[in-house]
Design a protein that fits this description.
The complex is a heterodimer. By secondary structure, chain A is mainly alpha-helical. Chain A has helices at residues 12-27, 29-34, 38-48, 51-68, 70-74, 116-152, 154-169, 172-183, 191-218, 221-228, 233-245, 247-270, 281-288, 297-324. Chain A folds into two domains: 1-34, no CATH class; 43-328, Orthogonal Bundle (MetI-like fold), CATH 1.10.3720.10. In chain A, α1 (12-27) runs antiparallel to α12 (247-270), α4 (51-68) crosses α6 (116-152) and α10 runs antiparallel to α11. The chains are: A mainly alpha, B mainly alpha. Chains A and B meet through α1, α7, α8, α12 and α14 of A and α1, α6, α7, α8 and α10 of B.
Amino acid sequence: MSDAGHERPLVEPEVERAEAIAGARAGGNVETLERAASLWGDAWRELRKRWIFWIAAGLISLFTLMAIVPQVFVAPSPATHDPRDCGLRAEDGTFQDRLRPSSEHWFGTDLQGCDYYARVIYGARVSIVIGVGVTALAGLIGLTLGGIAGFYGGWFDQLISRFVDVLFAIPFLVAAILFLNVIATAGNRNIGHVLLVLGVFGWPTLSRLFRASVIQAKAEDYVEAARAVGASNRRILVRHIFPNAIAPAIVYATIAIGGVIAVEATLSFLGVGLTLPAISWGLMINTAQTRIITDPHLLLFPGIFLSLTVLGFLLLGDAVRDALDPRLR
Amino acid sequence: MFRFTARRVLLMIPTFIGASAIIFFAGFALPGDPVSAFGGERELSDSTRAVLEERYRLDQPLLNQYVGYMSDLVLDFDLGESVLRRRPVNDIFWEAFPNTARLALLAVAIEIVIGLAAGVLAALRKGRFIDQLVLVSTTLVVAIPVFVLGFASQVLLGVKLGWFPIAGLNEGFKSYLLPAFVLAALSLAYVARLTRTSLVETMRQDYVRTAQAKGLRPSRVIGRHGLRNALIPVVTYIGIDLAFLMGGAIVTETVFNIPGVGFALVRAIGTRDNAIVVGFTLAAVIMFLLISLIIDLLYAVLDPRIRYE
C-alpha cells in the first residue's frame, strides 16, 4: 500500500523490519511456548510503558472522535461554526471570504466565506473512513490470498505471486488516478469509488508480507504437533498459523492507515479524488492552492490536521512493532 | 548465477505482459472519444473518421489493438501517437524525461548524502541525543504528505525567505534544488532509519568483534567491516526508489510546475489523451522492471552469502 501520500509505495524498510519481527519470533519461541498466548499480553505490558504509544493513542482517539461527532468540536459557538453555512458578504455588507483567524472564526474563512475551523474539523471524517476502510478491504484481500498462497503453495501461490509482481510494477498513484477516472467521472466521484480503487490496489504488500510469515510459521514444531494429533488443514491455518503469523501484518496495516489517509488527500489535492461538495483536507488545499502565498492559513490548518492524523498511525505502528519485537526487550 | 539471471529475466516477461495489459485496457477504457476530440467543435465527416480510425487502429477489436501496440513497442520502441496532440508519444516523452531524470538523480543524491550521514551518526550514538533527534525528525518528515511539504517549503523558503526559485525551471540548477529536497524527504528519512537499524545490527556481529579485538582502528572497523555489510539493504532500497522516481514524480512536479513525465501524465489523464497515459505509464513500468533487475543482480554480487542456485 502506498505510504504517506508520497510518490511511491515506500514500505520496503517497514516490510523488512516486520519480516525481521517474524524471524525473531520464530527464533525466540521458548518463552512463548512456556506461557501460552503471552505474546499479546507481553506486548500490551510493553506498550503501556511507552510514551510514544500514549501520544499515538491520544492523536488517533482525538481524530476518530472528530470523525464520529464533529458537532462536539464546534459546540462552543455552533452559530458561526457551520461548515456549509457560507457567504461572501455578511448582512452589514462586509466581505466574509479569506478572513484571517479571529475570535469569531478561529481558523479564519476560506474562499467562499465558509468557517475554516468547522470545515477542517468535519474533514476528519473522510480521512478516517477512507484510512480504516481501505486498510480493512486491503487486509481482507491480502490476508486471504497471502495466507492461502503461503500455506498451500503450488500453482495458486505462483499465480498470486506473479499477480503481486504485476501490481508492484505499476506505479500506485498512477494506477489509482487512472482507475478512478475509469470508474467515475469527476462530477459523481464519491468516497466509495476512492475506497474501492485504493483497496483493490492496496493489498499486494500485505499479501506478500503475510505469505512470508505464514511460510515461516508453517515450519514450526507446533504446526507439526497439531498435524500429528490430526488437526485439519483449515484448523491449523486458522487456529495455529494465523495468530502466530499476524503480528507483522498488524504493524504494517497500522502504518498503512496513515499512508492511505495521505494518499486520499493527495488524490483530492490533484483533483482526481473526491470532488466538491465533499469536505476533505486534500480538497481544501486544492481549492486554496492559488491563494496560499497571500493566505497561508488556508494551507496551514488542513496541512497540520492531515499530518497529525498520519503521524498518529505512524507512531502507533512504530510502538506496536517495538513492543512485538522481543530482540529490543 | 547464470541460471538465476536467466530465471529472473524470464519472470519479467509475464510481469510486463500483465502490467501492460492492465494499463492498456484501463487507459483505453477511459471515457471519451479521441477521434471526435480530434475534430474539436466541428463534426467529422464519415470518411475522415474512417481514415483516422484506421490510422490509430481504433476500428479493430480492443485485443488486436493491444497486440498491435505491444508489437510496435517491443519491435520499434514505439509508444504510439497522441491523437489529440498529433505527435508521436515518444517525442513527447523524451521532451519531458530529462527534467524528471535530473530531478530524480538530484533527489537520490540528497538521499544518499544526508540519509546515510544521519543514519550512521544515529547508529554510532545509539540511544543518545543525536539518535533521538534522527528518529523524531524522520518520523515527522514521513508524516507530512509531499504536497503539504511542497507548498509549505514553497511559501517559506521560496517566497518569504527568497532562498530558492518558487516554481518552474527558469533558473537552471537552482530551480531543481527545492523540488529535489521535497521529493527526497520521505526516502531520506527511510534511508536514515534503514542505515541506522542495519548498522546497529551489523556492529553486533562476531566479525566486527573480531576486527575490534585484533586492534583495528575504529574508523576501519566501522568502514570496512560495519558499513560495507550494513549498506547492502540500503543500496537495494535506494535502487528501487530511483526506479520509482524515474517514472515521474506526479505530486512534486505538479506543485513546482516542472514539465516532467509525472506532470504530463496527470495532464493527459485530465484531457483523456489515452495514448500518452498508456505510453508514459508503460515507460515507467519498463524502467521499474529494468532497474529492479539490476538491483537484484547487484544484490547477489554485493552479498556473497547469498547463493542463487
